[in-house]
Structures are given as C-alpha cells and as structure tokens.
Amino acid sequence: MLRELPNLTSTNLGSGRNKIFVRGIADSSFNGQLQSTVSQYLGESRLTYSAPDPDLALYDVEKVEVLEGPQGTLYGAGSLGGVIRILPRPPVLGEFSASGTAAMGLTGNSLGGDGAIIANIPVGERAAVRLVGYRIIRPGYIDDLKRGLSDVNRTNVLGVRATVRMEFNNRWSVDVGIVSQDTGSEDGQYTDGGQSSALTRRSFVAQPFDNDYRLVFGTLRAELGFAELVSNTSYNIHPIDTVFDATPPEAQTPILFEEDMRVKLLTHETRISGSTNSGSNWVSGFSFALNSNRIDRFLGPINALTTISNVRSETLDAALFGEATLPLWHNVSLTGGGRLSFFTRFDDFDAVAGDVAAEPTRPEFRFLPTAALSWKPWRGIIGYLRYREGFRPGAQQLTGSGNQIAVSRFEPDTVRALEIGMRFGSEAGSELSGGLSYAYSRWNRVQADLVTSSGFPYVANLGLAQVHYVSANFAWAATSELSLELSGFYTASRLDRPTSELEAKVERNLPNVADSGARLIGRFERWIGSTKITLDGSVGYVGTSYLGVGAPFDISQGDYFDTAIGGRAEFGPWGLSLDIENLLDSRANRFSYGNPFSVAGGNQRTPLRPRSIRIGIDARF
Fold first, then answer.
1. 3 located within any domain
2. Where are the alpha helices (DSSP H) in 32-87?
3. How confident is the model at residue 185 (pLDDT cuts 50, 70, 90)?
C-alpha cells in the first residue's frame, strides 16, 4: 500500500510497530498512549483505537480503501488524517474453491519465505466458511558488531482468518469470524553509524518486539426495501511487548527498558442508509467504542528489572451520526451532516513512589460537522468543495521521575480541513483518468507522543499547525496491454504557533511529513498462446522530512528513491512469479529512529530493506 499510494506514509520501526499517516497529518515518530491519526477497519470492524498498526497481511483481500482528510463525521475520534479500510473477500455460498501460494525470498545473503492457504467451503445451501492461513518469514539484514551476530532483525508472522456467512433469505445475512496474527521481531531494524551506509550497530542486548492481535466480530446485514441496515459488533485483544537497550554510554552493565501494553477494544456500530432515483442518498446511525489500555514499564539490569510505572485507562466514546446528499440544480449536489460524540475517561496510575492521584474527569460532548458541494459538468467529471473536521480527546499522564512523579493533562486536538478538487475518467472504459486536489488543514493543540532526551515517553500539546497539501494522479490505458499511472504530492506543513516550551526551537516542520513525493507505475499484460504474461514496475521518490520538532530530534530523513519490478506467468490454474524490491539496493535513510534511549545522539538510521528477491508459485482449484 505504501508503494502504491504516495499520500500514505509510515514510520519504519518494523512490522507491527509502525504509525501510518495520510495526507501530511502526522503527530510524532514515537509510539505511546495516543490514538493514531488514522482509523483502520477490517470490513466493518475497527482494528485499533490507541495502538500501532497491526500490519495484517493482505492475503485474500478484495480491495483496500483509503479515505483522505478528517473523517470525524462518519468515523469519529482518531480519524484526523483519514481512514484505511481493508475489505477481505467474503464467503461465497454454494461454491467450493481453494488456492495457495508459496515463495522463497532472499534479502542480502539471508533466506526467508512466505506461504498461504485459502479455502471457501459451502455448508448446506445457506451458509459458507472462508478460511485463510499464512506464515511469513522476513530475513534480517542488520549485524550487531558488539554481540558478534548477523541479520539480527529477523521477523516472523503467523496468521489465520475465518469467516462464516449465513443467509436466512435474500434479505438477511450474518457474518461471524475471527482474526488472529502474531508478529515477532527478534531485534530492532536500525543502525548507529551516522551517515554510513553500513548495515551495522552496537548494542549490549537484543531488543525484541511482539505484536499479537486477536479479533472476533459479528455483522448483520438486512435489506429493508427502502434502505439497508448494517450492524457490527467486534472485540479485540492486542498485547504489544517492546524491549529497548537503555544502557547509558559510560555504563558497563546492560540496562533494559521493557514496556508491556495490553489493549482491549469493544466496538459497535449500527447504521441505516438509502438512496432515491432523484440522486439523493443518506446514512445515519449510532456507535460506541470502549477502549481499555494498560501500560506496564520496567527498567534495570537484565536479571533485576524494576517496575517504574503502571498506567491504566479506559475510554468510552459513544456517538450519533448522520449525513445526506441532495441534488440542487444542473448536476450540483449538496452534502451535509454531523456527529454528536460523548466521551468519558478513567485513569489510574502507580509509580515507584507509590500511588499517584489522578484528577477526576468530566464527560465531554463534541459535535463534528461536514459540508460539501459537488458538480458534474460532463459525464465522468466531477468537481467538489468540502469542509470536514476531526478530533481526539485529551487525557492524563505521568510525568517526572523518582519522588517528583506527578500527573499532568494534555488537551484535546482538532483538525479543520477545507478541500477543493476534481476527478475525471470515472466511467468504465476511460482511456484517461485521474484527479487533482488541494487541501488546507488547521490543526489546533497538536497532540504528540514524545520522548525526553534520555528516552522516556510522554505526551505534549505542540501548538497550532497548518498543512497545505496538493496531490495529483493520472492513469493512462495506452493500449489493451499497457497501462501507466503517475501520482505525486507537495506538502508544506508548519507549527506556526508553538507552545512556549517550543518557541526557541529552530525547526518547526511537523515530523514525518515529507515535503514532496511521486511515483510512476507501469503494467504490461499479454497472452502468448495459453500463457498470460504480466510485467510491472514502479519507481518512487520520497522527499525530505524530520524525525521531530526541534533539537535534538530535528534529524533529517527521507530524500530517497524506491524501485521495484515483478513478473508473473499464468498457466491455467498455476502461476509462477518473480519480484524484486529495492532494485537499486539503496541504503537511504527512510526513518531516523530505532531506540529512544540513544536517538538523541543523532547517529541512528533506519535504512530501506536491501534488495530483496522473491520467487513464488501459486495455484487455484
């Protein structure tokens, strides 16, 4: 997804620990207790609330939708930058099918591989089960010179999905299912050689990471004649364990920092939607999310870790929402809507110095409106102007150390965005298609997960920021066999009214917001006898961004090219494929952070994965 969409960016800490950003709305490089700026869904189920991207493997996926801009009206808090919605293929009644894929991969001199099995099994006339199981081994490529180990950052992914669909008649259906994925990295994927391109570092101990994700869900769909009803309930358990080498430079005894996070999320949404022959459409509904988050932090020698804090929080987010589009005149339509949200939060803190009293919190109401005008002057062309808002609630946190531990509060933040743009070529069979847009976002009281210069996490409001974002994309079906896509963006982001703590900082660009980016993708398909040959390739550029706001974290990153090519030969139900990523074997610094306890020294780099070759075989029955 990151390769296909330049407006989608991510940190590069490793699978299961990254933060994803859309259209220049990026709060910080560091993981912590804040909600992501992007809401993620699998089908109708919300995946996360206050956790990093679980990085679910995209096997047996029908499509992925990326909704840009604040989406607070329909998706609520935590969608400041947008929404990513993964739509898996549903069970198919009355049809048995099976498919599988297996591959061997090579990164540098290290071997890996991946494999998956997919099955669709009918159960009588009114039900079917769809099963997906997979295993991925991503080779390591970082050598630790101090410990004398090679390729330490090997990653293993093991996952399964199962969905049962039951149709009671032509109008009612129920889907129930489970999602499980375990992601484990044996060590961090960063180097510490400054500007050197060597894939090496020196650390006292291993720094493993685990992200285990479990989701159960149920979705009811009903055709009511005049409208469609969708009701979804989901519950996920999401343990995340992180270890960092916290040994000071002058110390000889290794010091570990360990953080154990346990996230539990219960969500429900019921909505009803409909449309008329006149071109109007509407949607309304209610939702709630109950998010429980416990963070336990430990510090000390390897065999004598000491608890330094326990933080527990619960957030209830309930809402009523609605949106409608009405035709006005001459192919002009007006859209309006709003979301009334209710928030309440409970916090509890324990520290080395003893229990720390949290301030009582008061329930909070928030209204998020949306409005838009659209015009279709000719077939396949649409122009639009829209206004949207996004919001994240505030909370409390532990600050200080030792006997100086105290509770502080960070305030809610809001994004207000105005966008103007046009799209063309949306009708089937268009040779040319694409779009152009400009968005201006005003971000008030920017919340950010930060770390102190010594490496310990905290949250702060950075101030008032503005983001100007211009994007364009064009697709050309040159022939029935050859297609080209070109996309790009330009971003100007600035923290123009920083808080008093940041006023003296020289660099005030928002972190992880590249100033520009572009990608060219080509695809060629041809039948040679009974064999279908597919060739594709891409070259992309990601501009310069900065790790953080102000010294010592105003470290530049990005400014690199990313290249990939691939090919596939299809012989009836069988297929053979060859893919090469990072074709030019670039060692560019994609992201300048791997360990918060030594990042302030300015020598850390997170390079692109070296040239990786994958040879695969797939089959369907």
1. no
2. 72-75
3. very high
The one-letter amino acid code at 170 reads: N
How far is residue 296 from each of residues 33, 64, 407, measured CA to CA in Å? 12, 34, 16
Query: Number of folded domains in the chain?
Result: 1
Locate tokens 């990601």: which residue? 542
Structure tokens at 514: 């590249």
Partnered with residue 28 across adjacent β-strands are none
Q: What does the block give as tokens for 111?
A: 């071997």
Q: What is the mean pLDDT of the chain?
A: 91
The amino acid at 545 = S
- What distances in angstroms separate CA 133 from CA 16, 136, 198, 432, 489, one per listed residue? 18, 11, 36, 38, 37
Residues in the chain: 621
CATH number at residue 298: 2.40.170.20
Q: Which of 284, 282, 257 is nearest to 270 (CA)?
A: 284
Cβ partners under 8 Å of residue 171, min gap 6: 222, 223, 224
* Residue-range definition of the domain harbouring residue 144: 8-620
- Give the global pTM: 0.93
Mean pLDDT of 526-537: 96
380 exposure class (CB count in 10 Å sphere: 0-12, 13-18, 19+)? middle
| pLDDT tops 80 at residue 450 | yes
Identify whether 327 is preceded by a cis peptide bond (ω within 30 of 0).
no
By the 10 Å C-beta count (0-12 exposed, 13-18 middle, 19+ buried), 253 is classed as exposed
Q: What are 334-355's pLDDT values in tens digits?
A: 999 999 999 998 888 776 655 6
For the segment 292-304, the average pLDDT, to the nearest whole number, is 92
1 located within any domain = no
Find all residues with CB under 8 Å of 508, minimum gap 6, and list them: 494, 495, 496, 498, 502, 549, 550
Check if the beta carbon of residue 587 is closer than 8 Å to that of residue 559: no
